[in-house]
Specification:
The complex is a heterodimer of chains A (231) and B (244).
Chain A lengths: L5 H12 L13 H32 L4 H13 L2 H12 L3 H25 L3 H9 L4 H31 L11 H6 L7 H30 L9
Helix pairs in contact in A: 1-9, 2-5, 2-7, 3-5, 4-5, 5-7, 6-7, 7-9
Chain B lengths: L2 H10 L5 H31 L2 H14 L4 H10 L7 H26 L2 H9 L4 H31 L11 H8 L5 H32 L5 H14 L12
Helix pairs in contact in B: 1-9, 2-3, 2-5, 2-7, 3-5, 4-5, 5-7, 5-10, 6-7, 7-9, 7-10, 8-9
Chain lengths: 231, 244
């Protein structure tokens, strides 16, 4: 029943939160299980996103001409509405976990590539020259000088991508990947306002907590150095 | 039958009411974009006058990015009196659409060279005159960039109104997913193609509007500002990205 007043909505929410079934981890559709499914999807997507965006960024730093084409393609992909992207993949990859992961990976590219490139470019070239002067190889230079210095800005990009991916993963139930988003999709028909509110707030909180945690990591890694945030 | 003729047949079948779904989709999307502009621009003008308010508006818009798009519909529909109807959908999409316009209006106004505002003040212009004759013309391209981001984002999210039982192209997409036949794929495409086309039209069409609004002498300087602001507001797909 749709609530008529705010009090009624709040009491419905209270009843929902005290429903022991939603917390019963032995049920597939319980909040703990769906939370794990949600974070698994987000984790895999981010891992694959970074594994793709990182080498592309290194290439762009080396071959500057690649920047515009890479960013244009990533930008075009980003303009594709999520429901369209998910639905167009179904005839190709079916109703599988892969179909849920691919769009999340593609959407994250623009944010990650931009930040990774900016992070690496922001490293003082003098320090790299010092490394070279010490006789470091290109790989040593990358691993021991450039990356440690670029890491805080890289994490900053990862933060933005993480928040976005947690939100986007909510659409995955469209392709039959059940995560916290399915509680929202199931909350419309039949109409269950309390569930809609609780789950919406829950996913938002998860995204905000992930953001704060990564901000902590970023601060820790920057070790007091001023942060150059990429645009 | 090949896919193209299947889509063609699907769209022309009166039982699928393509015209009606197009109407439902456009009605909600256009109202939401219009409301976002009507609320976002004045709110931005007010917020830009005060650092604290501007900071609050910016932080709130940033935090809003953590809310999944489908959750906006859930939250709006759950509110008392609202429920599952097109008013809830438009409210949800408007809340989603305000931040890019609001942020760009604030950033644009704060970016106007203070000497220009001082000169206008020195000429005896009132607040309204300064705003209308000096600041807004300079800021218009930046606001247009925000409108572009909002339009793309709203169009990308409108298909979800089908879950509120409001029809639109999303109904075809959701109805066709999982039907592993060619007819199912045609049904998905009958919804996906118009949505994608509208999103691309908004992204690239409004980019042209944005360029046209930029005074010729300022084109080199203003556009990068607009892009940066538009980008920082776009952490979600469909929010549109620079295409400089």
């Amino acid at each position: 029943m749709p609530p008529k007043t705010l009090q009624e909505l709040l009491s419905q929410i209270n009843t929902y939160l005290h429903n022991k079934y939603i917390w019963d981890a032995s049920r597939d559709d319980s909040i703990p299980r769906l939370f794990v499914a949600h974070m698994t999807l987000v984790g895999w997507s981010l891992l694959i996103s970074v594994l793709i965006a990182f080498p592309i960024s290194l290439l762009i730093v080396r071959f500057t001409n690649l920047y515009l084409p890479a960013i244009s393609v990533a930008g075009l992909l980003y303009t594709v509405p999520s429901l369209v992207m998910f639905s167009l993949l179904v005839p190709i990859t079916g109703l599988t976990e892969t179909t849920a992961i691919i769009p999340l990976v593609l959407y994250a590219q623009i944010v990650l590539i931009r930040n990774f490139v900016a992070a690496i470019r922001a490293v003082d070239p003098v320090l790299q020259d010092v490394g070279r002067g010490l006789g470091m190889s290109e790989t040593q230079l990358l691993v021991r000088v450039t990356l440690p210095l670029a890491l805080p800005v890289i994490i900053a990009g990862l933060r933005v991508a993480t928040v976005a991916t947690i939100g986007l993963a909510t659409i995955a139930p469209i392709v039959s990947y059940n995560d916290l988003g399915s509680l929202i999709f199931n909350g419309f028909q039949p109409f269950y306002p309390a569930q809609l509110v609780v789950v919406a707030v829950l996913i938002t909180l998860i995204a905000l907590i992930a953001d704060v945690l990564l901000l902590g990591v970023q601060r820790l890694l920057s070790r007091g150095r001023a942060l150059v945030v990429a645009q | 039958m090949n896919l193209v003729s299947l889509i063609w047949a699907y769209v022309h079948d009166p039982a699928n009411d393509f015209g009606g779904h197009t109407h439902d989709f456009l009605l909600v999307a256009l109202w939401s974009i219009a409301m976002s502009i009507i609320i976002g621009v004045p709110l931005g003008i007010i917020a830009a006058q005060n650092r604290v308010v501007a900071f609050l508006a910016t932080s709130l818009s940033g935090a809003g990015r953590a809310i999944p798009t489908i959750a906006f519909f859930g939250l709006a529909a759950a509110l008392p009196i609202l429920g599952l109807n097109d008013r809830s959908a438009i409210i949800a999409l408007t809340l989603l659409g305000i931040p890019p316009i609001l942020l760009n209006t604030i950033a644009g106004l704060q970016g106007v060279d203070n000497t220009l505002v001082d000169a206008a003040r020195g000429m005896g212009m009132t607040f309204t005159q300064r705003m209308v004759r000096v600041q807004l013309p300079l800021v218009l391209p930046v606001i247009a960039a925000g409108v572009r981001t909002t339009a793309v984002q709203v169009i990308a999210t409108t298909p979800l109104i089908t879950f509120l039982g409001l029809g639109g192209y999303g109904e075809y997409i959701v109805g066709g997913i999982g039907r592993s036949t060619d007819a199912g794929t045609a049904q998905v495409l009958a919804g996906a193609i118009p949505v994608l086309a509208l999103a691309l039209l908004a992204e690239y069409g409004l980019a042209a509007v944005q360029r046209a609004l930029t005074p010729v002498g300022l084109r080199k300087q203003t556009i990068p500002v607009a892009e940066i602001v538009a980008d920082s507001a776009s952490a979600e797909p469909g929010k549109g990205v620079m295409a400089a």
